[in-house]
Amino acid sequence: MQAVNTLVITGHGTNCHKESAHAARLAGADRADVVFFSDLRAGRVKLADYNLLIFPGGFLDGDDLGAAQAAALRWRYMADAEGRPLVEDLKSFFDDGGLILGICNGFQLLVKLGLLPAIGGDYFQRTASLSNNDSARFEDRWVWLAANQKSPCVFTKGLDRLYLPVRHGEGKLVFEDDAAMRAAMGANLHALSYVHPETGLPTEEYPFNPNGSPHGIAGLTDPSGRILGLMPHPEAFNHPTNHPNWTRGASDPLGVSLIEGGVRFLKDG
After folding, report:
1. Residue of 142, 117, 120 whose CA lies nearest to 128
2. pLDDT per residue over 55-67, tens digit each?
3. CA 134 vs CA 7, 160, 163, 168, 234: distances in Å
């Protein structure tokens, strides 16, 4: 059983790093370090020392140029202290079996880096983005989600329905064309969907779908199942008292259960 060492990246406007690290520890990670992006670039921290990488939520660079767009360019074109492009370190991390989780702003980053949905295994080729909510406003509410049972995603294995909070202004998933959307869905890369609380079926109806994503898509995985990006915040439901109806005895699965799937996959190795 291998140890699960988690790296949570912060800096440039990230603000959910502490909750993400806490949730990883609750999920069974042996180690969860919060590290500034600048430390990674300076070589004080190495991606190779970890096997679970979390890009948490927040407002990278104030969402200038679009949510996580500047951060995506930073990862693509900056080098570490030894002159090695950071994107090569990220590729090596993934090729060596590492897991990557992007939450909200982190999901926006993964999509704009081209790590999701990586249709046909074509990584770092951007085929989708996340745009303004149809409501034209910031959405802060709890939503019902269903896991796609046919998805290869290791994080969602064994999960059915989740109740998690969203808090975003740019959460509507858009593909470069209909062909890309059909290909992603045909490969079951839509790992999580917003569902209607009564029918349990994927929905585009507001407010159950808070942003208007087509087919209710709330999260994407890659063909390997080792990368997951989602707009809702699993780390924000890390204790029963986080639930809006906890005083009424609500007992929905904690958001931590999603991270547990990734930890379990690594430990079973």
Report:
1. 117
2. 999 999 988 888 9
3. 33, 27, 21, 12, 23
Domain range for 127 is 5-268
Closest residue by Cα to residue 110 from 185, 172, 54 = 54
Q: Supply the pLDDT for residue 269.
A: 79
DSSP conformation class of 202: B
CB 228 within 8 A of CB 101: yes
Listed residue (53, 127, 135, 42) closest to 94, CA to CA: 53
- Pairwise CA distance, residues 22 & 134, whole Å: 32
Q: Which of 75, 81, 64 is nearest to 102 (CA)?
A: 75
Read off the CATH number of the domain in which 98 is found: 3.40.50.880
Q: What angle do CA 85, 89, 94 make, to 5 degrees?
A: 145
- Residue 117, preceding bond cis, omega within 30 degrees? yes
Show which residues are catalytic: 104, 233, 235
Q: In 114-218, which ranges are continuous DSSP H helix? A: 178-186
Sign of CA dihedral 218, 226, 222, 185: negative
At 11-26, the pLDDT tens digits run 999 999 999 999 999 9
- Regions of the chain short of the pLDDT cut 50: none
Instruction: Report pTM.
Output: 0.97
Helix (H) / strand (E) containing 111 = helix 105-113
Domain count, the chain: 1
The reported pLDDT for the residue numbered 1 is 81
